[in-house]
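Same chain as my last thread, 91 residues:
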Amino acid sequence: MARVVLPSSLTQLFPGAVREVDVDAATVRGVIDELDIRWPGMRNRICASGPLIREHIRIFVDATQATLDTPVDPASEVVVIPALSGGSGKV
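reply #2:
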């Protein structure tokens, strides 16, 4: 099963959600489906309508940025990262 790593900012929204979980899925879309089964509503936090990965979320499979159709192998690591924003850019 693929290892999925979720940000704490996401797991805090779902009681019982954990930062690392093993998921059996063939694609990133399947990973998100499995996460949504375990924690209903998680798909809506990761995906926008279309469906598309939300603009402020990045998903990586084995350190390569992924789309919903990116294949996931049983030995893959899938990492969900919220994009960083804010600040004035001044030092």
